[in-house]
Design brief:
The chain has four helices and six strands, in the order H-H-E-E-E-H-E-H-E-E. It is α+β, with helices and mostly antiparallel strands and 126 residues long. The protein is globular and about 40 Å long. Strands 1-2-3-4-6-5 form a six-stranded mixed sheet. The longest helix has 15 residues, at 62-76.
Length: 126
Amino acid sequence: MLNQFYSLKNLENLHQNHHKFVVIYDGDEALGFASFQHNCNNTNKTKLHKIYVLTQQHQKGLGQKLMDYVILKAKNKQEKAVYLNVNRNNSALHFYEKNGFKIIKSEDIEIGNGYLMEDFVMEKNL
């Protein structure tokens, strides 16, 4: 799955489709990143596609900095909300709820090669 989602070709395709990427560094070491897309599917909403921080960097506020950045960029674009998909069993649910996201629906998404995403869609109004 990592090879499928993070190949150079796939990342280039995402960039060409208006995905934005932000990376937090400590010197030359990348500690975390987020990817997002404004006006996703012509909804006037920003979709937070991914937000990841290295496990050894958890609980240091880096995820919050990434989230704050995405929300700020969405507000600057006058978007009406930020939304995301998260696995229903992901421990990050608390993080999203703390940031004002609410579960708006549940969905199962087949992504190929036998992978099934069992997600909540969460949204934060701006």
